[in-house]
Amino acid sequence: MTSATNPSTEELTPFPDHTQLPDSNGTFVKNWQEHPQSILLTDSITPVLKQLHPDGQYCIGQDLGIYWRLTDPPEKGAEAPDWFFVPNVPPLLNGQTRRSYVYWREYIAPLIVLEFVSGDGNEERDKTPWKGKFWIYEQVIRPAFYGIYEVKKASVEVYEFIGGQYQLLPANEHGHYLIAPMGVKLGIWPGVYQNVELPWLRWWDLQGNLLLTGNERAEQEHQRAEQERQRADRLMEQLRSLGVEPEA
Q: Strands 92-93 and 66-67: what pairing?
């Protein structure tokens, strides 16, 4: 006599991993500025993250899907922040670059998620259960910090997850927001990046110094070397005027 199959003992279909889930929703980037803005954030924060994680165990996502529940189609169960950082996870999975961040497999929430507003900001502040970005970040994914950046308003709102919900953080006297676990501050920098002048979203250290990109650091070093060369040339001219020939 055969017994009926017990659904609880049936073999379940394995959850898909990052290589099996869609890595694009097939739509165009809404704002040309989003890509350089993400690069600016990543480039300037990388030296800090390397100090915080000398083992290299961290992940940065730029317009990368965070899968938070299994749906059909799968992309309906994902949010794709413009920029996010997850500590204490490997940057590669089985030697492959991440195509998405599968939250139900790794269980570690991003430390910070940043959204760049393209429209009126309602999408980024939507608290509709199971659909709104704000609701999903606050109630499910729960990054410690959530930032909403509006280039048109030259502003950023930063929320911290406190007591089970997001609390809007106050800015300091410079308009910067402390992201304590990273040892940095986040704020608006009016300046030129990639030949475009905009109120860019950028990082500062705890002393208030702007975190520079690799190109900015190289330019700073070039200017410092040029100043040293000019000082040396003036010193040699002064010595010669006194009848002293500097040794080669």
A: unpaired
